[in-house]
Structure formats: C-alpha cells, structure tokens
Amino acid sequence: MPEQVVKRGETIKLGRVEGDLQVGRKATIKAESGGKVVVAGDVVFEGGATIDCSLECNAIETRAVPHTGGTVVVHGDLTVRESVDVADSLEVSGKATADGFDVGGHLQAEAVISKRVRVGGHVRISDIVESESVDVAGHLSVMGKVKIVDLHVGGHARVGGGAITGSTQIRGHFEANSNLEYGELQTFGHVSLPANSRGNRLSVLGRVEFEGDAYCKVMDVKGIVEVKGDLSTDELDVPGKMHVKGSLKVLNGLNILGLLEVGQRIDCQKLVVEGRLSAGSAFVVGEADVSGELKTSRGVKSSTITVRRGARVTGPLVAERVEVGEKPGFGQWPSPWSEVRQRIGQMTNVEDVYGRRVTIGAYSQAKHVFGDEVQIESGSVAEQVTYTKDLSLPSKFYIHEPPKKVPKLPDPPL
Amino acid sequence: MGRRSSKRSKMDLYAEVLEVITRYPEGVRITRLSYGVGVPVDRLKTMVEALCSNGLVRRSTNEEEVTYGATTRGLEFLDTYWKMKGFFEILGEER
Questions:
Q1: Which of A47, A50, A210, B62 has the highest CB neighbour number within 10 Å of its CB?
Q2: Each residue of A80-101: pLDDT tens digit?
Q3: Extended strands (E) in A194-284
Q4: How far apart are CA A59 and CA A80, in angstroms?
C-alpha cells in the first residue's frame, strides 16, 4: 500500500514522502518548498502526469496496462537511485539521473546520466549523455558531448561529439558535430565526422565524410569516402570511391579495388592498385603492384614497382627494380580496367621510369627509361633509353632515339 | 525529435516494429511496442500478426501476458532492409 496517493487529475503540493507514491493519470504534483519533491520509496504512475518541480525517488514505474499511456513530464531535475521504467514517454526539462532508464516511447531531457538507457522510440537530449549502454530503436539526437561505451540506434543518430569507446551500431545515418573518439563504428547509412575525429574501426555501407583531418585504424567503407583534410590509417582497402583532399598516410597496406583520388601525397608500406589511383605523389616503403590505372603528377617512389600487363601509368616511376608488362600474379585477376585496354589493343603503358634494374616487358610502351641495367623485351616501344651498365635488346623493338650509355644517370624527380 | 515528416511505407513500419522488438530480448507487450513505434494498438496488432505469420516475430504467452520477440528470420529481415536502404540511397545519389 503506497504511503501517498495522488488521484486522477488532482493537483497536489508535496514535500517529502516517506514511503511509495502512487500518481493517477493527468495528476500534477508541485513542491511545497525548495522546488523539489523527495520520495523515499518508489513512484508508480498510472499514466501520464506532470511533476512541476524536481523529483528525487528510489525508482519510477508506470503500469503498462492498455490505455494508460501518456507522457510523464518533470519540470526540473529527475534523480532516481534505482531504475526508471516508463511505458510511454518521459520528458525531463533538467538533468535525468538513474541507474537505468527503460522508456517505451520517447525520451527527452536536458542531460542523461545513467548506466543503461533503453528507449523504444526516439531520444532527444539538449546537452550531455553519460552512459555505459544506450540502445534506441528510433532516432537519437544529443546536442552536447557524449561519454558512452556502447551505442546502438535503430534509426539515425546525431551527437555533439565526445567519446563512444565501445561498439557503435547505427542502422541509419550518423553525424557528429564536434570531434568524436570512437571504437568500432558500424552503419548502413551515411557518416559525417568533424575534423580530428579518431577511431579504431569504421564499417560503413554508404557515404563517409570527414570534415577535416582524421585518423581511423581500420576502414571498411563499401560506398564513398570524402576527406576534406589529411587521413591516417593503419590498413586501407578501397572497394568503392574515396577522395582525400590532403595527404593519405597508411601504416601498412593500401589496396585499391575501386577509385582513389588523393590531392597531395600518399605514404604507405605496400601499394596494390587494381582499380584506379590518382595522387600528387606516392611513397611506398615496400612493393608497389599496379594492374589497374595509376596517375600521379609528381611520381611514385618505391623499392620495387611491378606494372602488370594491361595497366596504365601516368607520371614518373622511381624504384630500385621496375618491371613493366608483367603477367598478372598468382591468384590475381586482371582488373576490369586492364581487360578493357587489352581488348582495344593497348597494352601496358608507362611514362618515365627511373631504376637500377628496369625491365620493359613484351608489347609495353614507355617514354624515357633511365636505369643502370635495362632490359627491353620483344615488341616494346620507348622514346629514349639511357643506361650506365648494361642494355639488353631483343630482335624486335622500337626506340625513337638511339640508346645512350652515360657515366651517371640524371637525378630522379623524387 | 518529432515524428518523421514523410509518410512511412508499410516496409518502413515493419522494420520499425522489428527494431523496437529487438530492443526487448525478454519480449515486449503490444502496448509498449505501440508507444515505441507510434502506431495505435489496434493497427499495430494487424502488423504484428502479419510478422508472426511470416516467421519474423515470435509470440509468447505467459500468465495471460502476451509478449513478442524477434526471430532469427526477423533479424535477417532487418539487416537486409537496412542494407537495401543503404544501397538505394547510394544509387539515388549517383543518378
């Protein structure tokens, strides 16, 4: 039996209630003094009601029998020691604090601080959210910073920045208004992140926009990526389209199956171009393997560069070892781009090549070739070959100017 | 955040019903479900029945209380729905 009962539609002033409080539908509770009602026990709502002040209690419950819906409105702060269980919606004009929130309808508050938040409808918070777990079936909007471990949202989500350190699963679109630190972020929609956002893993089906510089350890984006600054990552596969306005730094491998455009410089450990790459310049520590289309304005520098048969390279290539016109590697299918070029009769095509050992394979075309040891294979075409040690020529080749043996090669552009 | 400005299609509504149901692994009552989805109980019952008959939602009765939970097929439907929605948006932008 509750200590105090507020009847349906009744307006009452309360101070402190020692036991439980039962509140009828459409009842209004005001504070006797101090702008706050304190209930030592639980508050049980029989439907929607208004608390015209702050409320402090042990727990909140609404009875979810049919036709007892309605919003519980608190015009102040809500402080609950245990959990809040509201069948319909909850609106708190101040800060809502509880061990757990379970709201069937919508949740609206200035701030939410809780261990667990579960909402069947939408969530709208005008300031901060701090919680270990937030699970929302509808949309989520948090204008302030968040400090969340796991976030799962059935619709779209927008946060004001902060940190979501664990798993973030958003079915729709996700947007952060200031820099966000994230663990694993997965969404089927679009993602928009501001400058200086950092994360461990980004898995997106749709479009990703970074408004400035960004770091993400592992990126798996099936759709389109737009970076308006520099991008740093540990491992990067590009199956769709990616545009980086600044520079791209990849700690390990960069694998391009789709289209990648980088405004400035690329730094990576290993480069595989099966699709199309366009960049200012590319510096590869290990091996560069091109079977698609590679276009740079200042060139590519690597320890070894392999240009597969049917590939097309625009811009200088600089490496210890350059092989042009290689057959596709074991298990490596020719890219759609190379297949198209083979069909129309254009074979491997490169521009200037600088290397210690350079091989221009059969039916390949190069502009200027500079190497200590140069090997030209049957049917290949070059404008000029300059070498210091050895030149190997087949019976059938086309070099526009006579090959030149020089004591020292000119400095490469990179 | 208010209700959506554009009218939800039948498929959107089915997906939203499933989204709410998946939040309750212990099962959810129709009343609470209606508050989450924003659809009256009588209309929602028809939709939930359709989902049940197609094996996307499971009905459980316990002490005269009927609750609903998502089946594996229901979860698969949700994943496919959002993936398709994502693809349609990409294709729509590229047109």
A1: A210
A2: 999 999 999 999 999 999 999 9
A3: 197-204, 207-210, 214-221, 224-227, 231-238, 241-244, 248-250, 253-256, 259-268, 270-273, 276-284
A4: 6
Which pLDDT score, from 0 to 100, does residue A233 have? 96
Q: Could you give the ipTM of this predicted complex?
A: 0.89
For residue A347, the model assigns a pLDDT of 76
In A257-351, beta strands by DSSP E = 259-268, 270-273, 276-284, 287-290, 293-308, 312-314, 317-326
Q: Where are the beta strands (DSSP E) in A137-230?
A: 140-142, 146-153, 157-159, 162-170, 174-176, 180-187, 191-193, 197-204, 207-210, 214-221, 224-227
φ, ψ of residue A53 to 5 degrees: the values are -165, -170
Average pLDDT over residues A65-89: 89
Domain boundaries, chain B: 10-94
Which tens digits make up the pLDDT trace of A105-119? 999 999 999 999 999
- Integer angstrom CA distances of residue B68 from A197, A231, A276, B20, B71: 39, 45, 50, 10, 10
Taking alpha carbons only, the member of A90, A87, A171 closest to residue A137 is A171
The DSSP secondary-structure symbol of B46 reads H
φ/ψ (deg, to 5) at A182: -130, 155
- Is B88 in CB contact (< 8 Å) with chain A? no
Average pLDDT, chain A: 91
Interface A:B, Cβ pairs < 8 A: 90
Is A12 exposed, middle or buried, given 0-12, 13-18 or 19+ CB atoms closer than 10 A? middle
Cβ count within 10 A of residue A154: 29
Domain spans, chain A: 1-85
- The residue of chain A with its CA nearest to that of B92 is A206
CA distance B4 to B13: 12
* pTM value > 0.80: yes
> DSSP secondary structure string, A53-83?
SEEEESEEEE---TT----EEESS-EEESSE
Distance between CA atoms of residues A249 and B59, nearest Å: 52
Q: What is the pLDDT of residue A248?
A: 97
* Residue A198 near chain B (CB below 8 Å): no
Per CATH, the architecture of B10-94 is what? Answer: Orthogonal Bundle (1.10)
Amino acid (1-letter code) at residue A385: V
pLDDT tens digits, A158-171: 999 999 999 999 99
Q: Is A251 on the interface with B (CB under 8 A)?
A: no
Q: Quick check: B16 and A123 CB within 8 A?
A: no
- Cβ density class A204-231: b for 16+ within 10 Å, e for less: bbbbbbbbbbbbbbbbebbbbbbbbbbb
State yes or no: pLDDT of B4 exceeds 50: no
B37–chain A Cβ distance below 8 A for any pair: yes
pLDDT tens column, B6-22: 678 899 999 999 999 99
